[in-house]
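Recap from last week: sequence in, structure out.
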Amino acid sequence: MSDQPLVLVVDDDQRIASAIRRALIYEGYQVEVARDGPVALTHVRERPPDLMILDVMLPGLDGMEVARRLQAGGGEFPILMLTAKDGTSDRVRGLDSGADDYLVKPFAYEELLARVRALLRRRAPRRQRTIRYADVFMDLGAHEVKRDGRVIALTAKEFDLLELFVRNPRQVLTRERIMDAVWGFDFGATSNVVDVYVGYLRQKLEDGGAARVIQTLRGVGYVLREE
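Predicted structure tokens:
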């Protein structure tokens, strides 16, 4: 069984649920989808997730009531609530019902993924807050990167990109997968943003003459592996 976090997506809009599922899978998560509240509660009983993404406007049992029932039942996983309503009172109701965070539709998938990572980091045991490959060490909680003991200062986006590589060592990542996982769906297919940021990351990782660990597969993408 995979040790990657399990995310339960609860949304009756198949298009939105499928898009969220795709973005999360690209990020490396396990994903299950429920179309309504009762099915979501059944999923939770059978296999509690590490995080739930919950739409407010569900048929029958709405998201607010699902969150309240989970809170009353002692649910220990975070809930990211999605809604089309952006009024302060609506946000307060969502948070009071048991949600840990609140995102208004329409949203950028980049922001959704960032909020998922933040919620999971808050709840993650300390032993799961660090990942590494070879001499590259990442402390996800402290947002710190070291290579062979040397601290490397990264921007938020560079950190997300490196985390994707370190979570998928020796796996070829296409530019499309990297773009979907790190930037969501905000850039066109012709954008060179992936190549630019891989260049930034290499400069920082290789400072001082360190060996290259992010390799290029011409015409395919990139892979994290030692030469």
